[in-house]
Design a protein that fits this description.
Radius of gyration: 24 Å
Structural class: alpha/beta
Shape: globular
Largest sheet: 7 strands, mixed
Oligomer: single chain
Number of strands: 11
Strand content: 15-25%
Order of helices and strands: HHHEEHEHEHEEEHEHEEEHH
Helix content: 25-40%
């Protein structure tokens, strides 16, 4: 038997109802038919999903595993087929997307303060996916990143404005032999293990590998992840170094250091649907995002010091 979306809905219905009989009533089938279907699903998945008792059913540990993934799959499918949704065209609703950066958090904080405007936030790792969500009318605006030489093309239905161009720094343990330097030569990290986040569909981490090649080495990358807490744990333990945004903050056990010669850059952008409710606020959006970036720099001594040394104007907004 092949597990289908309807089977996942049955599993969730049973869990929500707390009994097979109540779930059968909710989905409009007989209890014996639902019981037989549930048994077939359990056989197909290779484990018992529910523990039956006098008062109904409760998920087994394996069932919790299945339910978590089933709900996630169904939510994603529902979002996919929902299209623009009933809220499309509302001038009082701002659906904001982005990758988690100070630009996104600062922009959202300011939009929450706009009278009469409701805000929802959706984060994704891939800038290209965020751009697709804008083009398909599932978002109204988004903060994006790309890399010089791999610039994001704006679809005809999307407006885009550059907020800031900033250097890529390196995150390392505070006990690393180079942690005391003002700036670190990329070539001096050739012997380190690296943790690098996976491809984002725009040019990361290809730009990192290219910069390392220009510095005369191929990085050794035994770790690949997006979870910042785990990256920080590996770095703090001295197990790896990691490229990072310049706006990343120092923390116990880790330091952020500029790369000498600035071999890596990224760009922060804000984008919006040209036919969306935020189109008339495009200048305001860009201003909010640029202000958030400037505030992040001021709060990061390593970044502010780098900008002062290089006479750099890190934002264009």
């Amino acid at each position: 038997m092949q597990v289908e979306l309807r089977h996942l809905r049955v599993i969730c219905a049973v869990a929500d109802a707390g009994s097979v009989s109540r779930a059968a009533t909710a989905v409009g089938v007989s209890q014996p038919a639902l019981t037989a279907q549930l048994q077939r699903v359990e056989t197909a998945l290779g484990g018992q999903i529910f523990r039956r008792g006098r008062l109904g059913v409760t998920p087994t540990p394996f069932g919790q595993f299945v339910l978590t993934r089933a709900r996630s799959i169904l939510l994603a499918v529902d979002e996919l087929v929902a299209g623009t949704g009933p809220h499309d065209g509302r001038s009082d609703l701002a659906r904001i997307g982005g990758y988690v950066t100070p630009v996104l958090s600062g922009l959202v904080a300011r939009l929450f303060e706009v009278p009469g405007l409701s805000v929802t936030v959706h984060t994704e790792y891939s800038p290209r996916l965020l751009l697709d969500l804008l083009a398909s009318r599932r978002l109204d605006a988004a903060t994006l990143v790309d890399y010089p030489g791999s610039e994001l093309p704006a679809p005809p239905s999307v407006g885009m404005r550059l907020v800031a161009t900033e250097p890529v720094f390196v995150l390392m343990s505070s006990t690393h032999p180079l942690a005391g330097r003002e700036e670190v030569d990329l070539a001096d990290l050739a012997g380190d293990d690296w943790v690098i986040s996976p491809p984002d569909g725009v040019g990361w981490p290809e730009c990192v590998y290219a910069a390392c090649q220009r510095a005369g080495f191929t990085p050794r990358v035994p770790h690949s992840m997006t979870e910042q807490a785990m990256i920080r744990q590996l770095v703090a333990g001295g197990h790896a170094v990691s490229p990072c945004q310049a706006t990343v903050q120092d923390a116990p056990g880790i330091v952020v250091r500029p790369l000498a010669g600035t071999p890596l850059w990224l760009r922060h952008l804000v984008a919006w649907r040209l036919d969306g409710p935020l189109a008339r606020r495009a200048g305001e959006l860009a201003g909010f995002a640029a202000r958030a970036h400037r505030e992040a720099i001021a709060d990061r001594p390593h970044y502010a010091a780098w900008a002062a040394r290089h006479g750099a104007a890190p934002t264009s907004g």
